Amino acid sequence: MILVAVMAEMLEEYTALLSRVAEHVFLSAPIPRRVRILILRRLPFPSTSSSSS
After folding, report:
1. Is 45 within 8 Å of 16 (Cβ atoms)?
2. What is the model's pLDDT at position 11?
3. Residue 49 within a domain
4. pLDDT of 2 above 70
């Protein structure tokens, strides 16, 4: 059961990392602003300024 909790935590962190990478890519991509905003709103984790521990 502990292994499942550890894996869930790792997957959560991995998904958040992928979300931040995708956000960075779409912010720097030469695509129209409206399209960029629509894409960023559909990311699974909205960007927040929380500290990592």
Report:
1. yes
2. 92
3. no
4. yes
Residue 51, domain member (yes or no): no
Tens digits of per-residue pLDDT, 34-48? Answer: 887 887 787 766 555
User: Ramachandran region of residue 2, left (φ > 0), alpha (ψ -120 to 50) or beta?
Assistant: alpha
Q: How many whole angstroms separate alpha carbon 8 and alpha carbon 41?
A: 24
Q: Is residue 50 part of a domain?
A: no
Total number of domains in the chain: 1
Separation CA 35–CA 16 (nearest Å): 21
* Residue 27, domain extent: 1-42
Neighbouring residues of 39: CB distance < 8 A, sequence distance ≥ 6 = 26
Residue 38 forms part of a structural domain: yes
Predicted local confidence at residue 50, as pLDDT: 46
